[in-house]
Amino acid sequence: MVDISVTRTARRPIRWTVLLDHAVLIAGSLFMLLPLLIVLQTTTMPDTDIIQHGPQLKIGDQFDENLQKAMVQASGFSGENTGLRMMLNSFILGLGFAFGKIVLGMMAAYALVYFRLRFATIAFWLIFTTLLLPLEVRILPSYKVVQNLGMLNTYHGLIVPLIASATATFFFRQFFRSVPEELVEAARIDGAGPVKFFVDILVPLSQTMIAAMFIIMFVYGWNQYLWPTMITTEESMYTLVRGIKQITQVLEGAAVPEFGRSNLLAIIAVVPPVAIVIFFQSWFVKGLTESDK
Amino acid sequence: MAEVKLNSVRKIYPNGAEAVTPSSFHIQDGEFVVLVGPSGCGKSTLLRMIAGLEEITEGELMIGDRVVNHTDPADRDIAMVFQNYALYPHMTVKKNIAYGLKNRKTPGDEIERKVAEAAQMLNLGDYLDRKPSQLSGGQRQRVAMGRAIVRDPALFLFDEPLSNLDAKLRNQMRIEIKALQRRLGVTSIYVTHDQVEAMTMADRIIVLNGGRIEQIGSPSEIYHNPTSTFVASFMGAPPMNLLDARIADGTVQLDGGAHVAAAPNGKTGPVTLGIRPEDVKLDAAGALHFDIDLIEELGAHRLLHGKVAGQPFTTHLLKDVTVEPGRHGVRIDPSKLCLFDTTGSRL
């Protein structure tokens, strides 16, 4: 046997480009994270301290108390808009939103891609142009319709009017078009009808795409502010994003604003979307880049 | 098991293009028929019409004793193997094979039994729980075959099933498919652009060109008695030599005056002379001069490429004969000659 020993005498030279890359990345993440850290710091301080000194570099002892207040204390008249309640509402909105948009988008795309509809192309472009009409543009008619249907202050009133999604339809359409045609034909010969093909073949194939859409749509639904503000007037229906605003409104009164509580709620409102993105990250990238067929 | 009858079946696409001109043929029960032709000749369209994936514009299609023009593919009692296998990527091999049975509400234990049977027949037993992406091309092709077999269809349809495989595997699968078809005795229609596949696998070959049937016949008929210059040049590798010639004074003459053979009665004027490369013998006393430019070594034999009477020409030489490039005399076996008129049809 020949004894081979490799001694590393030369140290690897410092690669300046790598350092620079990291510096840029670190600066970027600090830029994004610092405001959150400052907000987090204020949640540990008594409200009076914050109003006197603003954000500081020390960590106080009020976190537990603020957390208590944030999660279970209500600020309105009815006592129903606790943090937990608002969080539940946000989850219902986010999930309902994502689920509704995915189901509707997939079915619309399925019709557009796999059925010989006479005006499929026109229909697709009509759907697509609704991207140019965001909620803000059509908010009054939308509100009127929901009101006439008696859906104010209901979950379906919050969710249903917004689940028609050009984005989801578009993405699923592109995805379905990339599914080999032989698969449809093989399924037809195998005796799978339209519904069977959709459920047995297309939905499982779209898994990654569904995950990607779920992230986008959940975060979008969770972060909705304008629509819930319009549709919900009962405190038990408030979502987090809308409810925080309610708490900070006290700023205009004479009382000491509850900085700690509202800031903690703001942090809590950020956590689920971030968690979902982190959890589904690999799926997300797969869904948008790779075609797993 | 079933016969297939096509009665003036025609396909015109919505844009007006006629992909298949009215075509009629009759496939016997248990026969293996190969549709062969260059790409765009309509062979796949014809197959897809038989499968029900493409609508029939005109004519009548019968599988067994039913007219199935408007029958759904699932109800035609057929099974199809696709070029890219078309396996369901998210299902295991077992589920892929069983899917068609499941959709037909076959009882679970019968599915188990049939899948096991097919897997054993195709040597897929060890792979039943794998996904298609974990299989090699040949194995995927076998799964596609398995999916067809378990259904016990009256008719197998193959759409260029081997063209995604490498050459060696293709030869092997060719034999496997043929043997399987023999064993099961199921009527089969096989589409390919590869004339070797057509020759080796078919009971009968249908040669298509430009949406038209050029010739229907057994491999040996097609090879030895092509009815047109198209068939003559499409079938066989290397193809039949085709030389411009003319008939004068009762003989077939090449440009330059060499007499080749006695002419059939009553014909004069320009013709195309066809001769298979292996029907040409090197012979110093031969009437024709063959200028050999290139010798292609194929192991078991050699191909000699060059010119006869200024026209490209190829012959076939067994491995134990050696020859140098240059001018050589050749002799043509007159009984093996094929003569075509100027439109390319056999005289």
TrEMBL record, chain A:
This is sn-glycerol-3-phosphate transport system permease protein UgpE. Residues 87-280 form the ABC transmembrane type-1 domain. Belongs to the binding-protein-dependent transport system permease family. It comes from Thalassovita aquimarina. Part of the ABC transporter complex UgpBAEC involved in sn-glycerol-3-phosphate (G3P) import. Probably responsible for the translocation of the substrate across the membrane. It comes from the Bacteria. CDD domains: TM_PBP2 (cd06261). It is a multi-pass membrane protein. Its main location: membrane. Coiled coil: none annotated. The chain crosses the membrane at residues 18-40, 91-112, 119-135, 155-176, 197-220, 264-285. Gene3D superfamilies: MetI-like. It holds the Pfam family BPD_transp_1. SUPFAM superfamilies: MetI-like. Keywords: Cell inner membrane, Cell membrane, Membrane, Transmembrane, Transmembrane helix, Transport. It is found in: Cell inner membrane; Cell membrane. The complex is composed of two ATP-binding proteins (UgpC), two transmembrane proteins (UgpA and UgpE) and a solute-binding protein (UgpB).
Automatic annotation (TrEMBL), chain B:
Residues 4-235 form the ABC transporter domain. SMART domains: AAA (SM00382). Keywords: ATP-binding, Cell inner membrane, Cell membrane, Membrane, Nucleotide-binding, Sugar transport, Translocase, Transport. InterPro entries: AAA+_ATPase, ABC_transporter-like_ATP-bd, ABC_transporter-like_CS, ABC_transpr_MalK-like, ABC_transpr_MalK/UgpC-like, Mo/tungstate-bd_C_term_dom, NA-bd_OB-fold, OB_MalK-like. Belongs to the ABC transporter superfamily. PANTHER family: MALTODEXTRIN IMPORT ATP-BINDING PROTEIN MSMX, SN-GLYCEROL-3-PHOSPHATE IMPORT ATP-BINDING PROTEIN UGPC. This is Sn-glycerol-3-phosphate ABC transporter ATP-binding protein UgpC. It comes from Thalassovita aquimarina. The lineage of its organism: Bacteria, Pseudomonadati, Pseudomonadota, Alphaproteobacteria, Rhodobacterales.
